[in-house]
Design a protein that fits this description.
With 334 residues, the chain is α/β, with parallel strands linked by helices. 37% of the residues lie in helices and 18% in strands. The strands form four sheets. The protein has a seven-stranded parallel β-sheet with strand order 5-2-1-9-10-13-14, sandwiched between helices. Strands 7-6-8 form a three-stranded antiparallel β-sheet. Helix 4 packs across helix 5. Bound molecules: ligand FO1. Ligand FO1 binds next to helix 2 and helix 6.
Amino acid sequence: MIPRPGNGDQPCKPPVSGPRILALSGGIGGAKLALGLYRLLGERLTVVVNTGDDFTHLGLAISPDVDTTLYTLADLVDPAKGWGRRDETWTFMKVLGELGGPTWFNLGDGDLALHVERTRRLAAGARLTDVTDAVRQRFGLSCRILPMSDEPVATLVETDIGPLAFQEYFVREQCRPRLRSIRYEGADRARVTPEIAAAIADPALGGIVVCPSNPYLSVAPILAVPGMRELLESAPAPVIAVSPLVAGKAIKGPTAKIMDELGHAASAATIASHYRGLIDGFIVDEADADLVGTLGVRGIAAKTVMHDEAEKIALAEVAIRYCQELREQREWVR
Ligand code: FO1
């Protein structure tokens, strides 16, 4: 029985015992499900986060997906944008613009402090894993938030206007250029961190949930870290994924557009086959319920669109239960 979140003034207090869940996530979409999982699991949740979007900007080490996860789980995120901090002020960007500096990537004043502090600690020799964990503790979060690797990996896209770094493509060019290919520079030199290896091998692990993040831009960089996919495939728990597409359309972001440009049919079925060999079960949206049984992998249908916290918790509950069911049936043994 999964504990229900608290009502009214009663905060949700997840029990400390019970199976652990490991989630793989990118930015905004993935963090929504991660929040639902966090409400139900507390310290029994570990989130492995994409760092392929990371870059150095204005001399600062920026880790957008790590920060989106931290801010979302700590209830600090800007609810309208889904990234950055709520109640942010923008004096730095205003003055930067007045000075003729680059303003295409928006850094709020409060957010800026995190980038400055991360840059300072990394320059002093700290690992991104430890810097992230220090911020996680400062934010009062009990779950673990683990960058996919401590070595830099950069998602680069080949487009019809030439090669672009991820944030140039995503933010500066607003995903308008046609995508030809994607590569994850530095992935061959990246290593799985001891924290991630231990979390995957944990005998108390009840399931691995691939969040509804972009499979090509957000989840693929995580899987490109040498040894990561093999560790996940041999984990002592089932691996499930949640489709980021609903009736062939992305809730947010360029997933459907880039699938089309890469020559893949934009459907949940394509994503299920993209994850084939890794996953033991796939959750499609209720609008795609007719695809269950045709996916080439076990699947169920559920409401995957998450407008509010109740819907995030509801989907998290479905994902946890599905892991439990697969585990009980031992159907996940490949
Ligand atoms: N997304 C935008 O669309 N425009 C921005 O100016 C922007 C700035 C930004 C700053 C810090 C941060 O942590 C995230 C930021 N994002 C911005 C979001 C980010 O580009 C994307 O959400 C991810 O990289 C994709 O998951």
